[in-house]
Amino acid sequence: MNDTTHRRFPDMWVDPEDDPREQWSRPVGELETHWSYLRSYRATIEMKCDGLDAEHLARRSVPPSTLSLLGLVRHLTNVEHHWFRRVLQGQAHLPRLYQTPEDRDADFTGAIAVPDVVAEAWATWHAETAAADAWLATLTDADMGRTVRHRDEDVPVRDVLEHLVEEYARHAGHADLLRECIDGRTGQ
Q1: Counted domains in the chain
Q2: 65, 54, 48, 72: which is closest to 112 by C-alpha?
Q3: Which residues form a coiled coil (predicted)?
């Protein structure tokens, strides 16, 4: 994606007609709308990390913050796993990913510049997003009002999906700034 020599708009990540997020730009219905935004923000995170090595992905933002692109990938993996598997699918017995009782911020503190750590983070993120998408494919708009139990409260499925969209949108903004600090790439 980073090759700017063959693009009409070299200042953009991809030319508009090649933007993979466009495939989800015309959703129909409530479920599809939430899902399309989620897929679009997932693709944005992936685009912002494209072409970077382990050192760049693990580069921290501003001390004392532990925020990094790799940390965001690990954090979003944990978010997908928690909300889709533990909450929406009722598998609360599953342990949280990238968190320990000693370090609840291990998704970020464990994001180190080691190729195997990067490879594992991406593999786990892809597995969790694929599992989430497989589960979402079993739903209809009628399921959006169905409730699940979370922290002794009944929460509609639509609220959980909206939370996930918000989570990704927030972190896509972080990813914009982190990437700009690494190599000056901005926009889109």
Answers
A1: 1
A2: 54
A3: none
